[in-house]
Amino acid sequence: MKPSKRFALIAGARPNFMKIAPIMKAMQRYPEFEVCLIHTGQHYDKNLSDIFFQELGIRRPDVALGVGSGSHAKQTAEVMVAVERLLVEAQEQSQPFTALIVVGDVNSTMAAALAASKLHIPVVHVEAGLRSRDRTMPEEINRLVTDSISDLLLCSEPAGVENLISEGHPAANVHLVGNVMIDTLLNEVARAKQQNTLALYDLIPKQYAVVTLHRPGNVDHPQTLKAILEVLAKTSERLPIVFPVHPRTRSRIDQFGLQGILDKASGCRAVEPLGYLDCLCLTSQAKVVVTDSGGLQEESTALGVPCLTLRPNTERPITCSEGTGTLIGSSAELLDRKLQEVLCGTYKAGKCPELWDGKAAIRITDLLAGLFR
Ligand code: UD1
To answer: Closest residue (by CA) to atom 30 of ligand 1?
Structure first.
């Protein structure tokens, strides 16, 4: 059958790549679907982008927009201009897109959704409805804007559905489909555990912590970042830490002259950002994850590994209410107390949320097939 439905699928930054992989695969089940994969180039480093395509078997993007880094306005505007051009060209060549699919909450997500919406191309948002209610987070603005102009809102947890309904979205446009990021995790975890990552960093299963930090709220202020690094250094005296350092965090550590804190912490290994399989190899066998990442909160819950979330709020409340997550905010005292619980085995056990079952992308594509018949 000749494809008759053309979908533009947008990927921009690291957390998008593990979400698009299962969607692309599930779309192949429908011969009438054609997918145009568009990489905005928001993340361009090998370790933040290419390695995910290789490891997850995602084909080369059909279009690479090469937008790169910049201020929020510049990055957003450049993605909008480039996506608009692409969508208009497709219309002029009589190959219009049936819909545009965006995932997550990065600048590329919002920018592409805006461009499509103004051309009256239906927008499908995967991971819709999440709200931290903290408008100082750039992602919260991206989530609010993207959802407000999306035509089909696909949620990973019940809170997403509740938020969207209370914001006035018609129930017919909102669907609980589950978590596509966990589709990828369940597909890859056995393979990830075969990696030799633990040996590489001299780690023993269940006897180390994985730490990641990249939120502007944690890393962009010298005092906040210094306090977090000091707590980590102290923690590493009790439990070895492996700390893959995001480029934003690396540049802030250098800019604020904080490298000395890490140098003195002999139990803390600061390493380059990791690929998907190395990261999953480490997190799946960790004693505890300490993070401000949205994705790692969810992955820890799916893996049943305690997650101490270095944020005052989360847009993914199910990771705390049902899963293994606890919000720590910036309290060194609470972090210390919860770590103690983890180490002496009294920390809560979580459960994996409903529909985080490896089949979210199948549900999404079945919905698309029904709606865009
Ligand atoms: C972005 C997303 C965030 C997501 C995170 C995962 C937004 C607003 N933020 O944040 O939601 O959790 O990705 O990593 O979209 N840089 C590189 N190499 C790259 C990309 C960036 O060195 O390949 C450096 C640049 O100096 C850049 C900085 O990292 O200015 C920040 O990158 P940016 O994409 O603006 O935001 P992230 O902090 O990565």
So the answer is: 69
Long-range contacts of 185-189 (CB under 8 A, 24+ apart): 185/18, 185/280, 185/299, 185/302, 185/303, 186/302, 186/357, 186/358, 187/22, 187/358, 188/55, 188/56, 188/276, 188/277, 188/280, 189/280, 189/284, 189/303
pTM of the predicted model over 0.85: yes
* Nearest CA-CA partner of 16 in 135, 159, 113: 113
267 CA → ligand 1 middle, Å: 27
Ligand 1 geometric centre to CA of 362 (Å): 29
pLDDT(1) > 80: no
The dihedral of CA 244, 247, 249, 251: what is its sign?
positive
Q: Which two tokens stand for residue 51?
A: 């390695």
Number of H helices and E strands in the chain, helices first, is 17, 13
Tens digits of residue pLDDT in 337-369: 999 999 999 999 999 999 999 999 999 999 999
CB atoms within 10 A of CB 12: 28
- Number of the ligand 1 atom closest to the C-alpha atom of 105: 11
Give catalytic status of residue 214 as yes or no. yes
CA 279 to mean position of chain CA atoms: 13
> What Rg value do the Cα atoms of the chain yield, rounded?
20
65 token code pair: 């927009």
Q: Do 161 and 174 form a contact (C-beta atoms < 8 A)?
A: yes
User: Tokens 């990830």 appear where?
Assistant: 192
Task: Say how many C-beta atoms besides its own lie within 10 A of residue 85's C-beta.
Answer: 12
Q: Which atom of ligand 1 is nearest to the CA of 294?
A: 12
Of 10, 171, 62, 122, the C-alpha closest to 368 is: 122
Q: Tell me the pLDDT of the chain averaged across its residues.
A: 97
How far apart are the C-alpha atoms of 196 and 318, rounded to whole Å?
Answer: 32
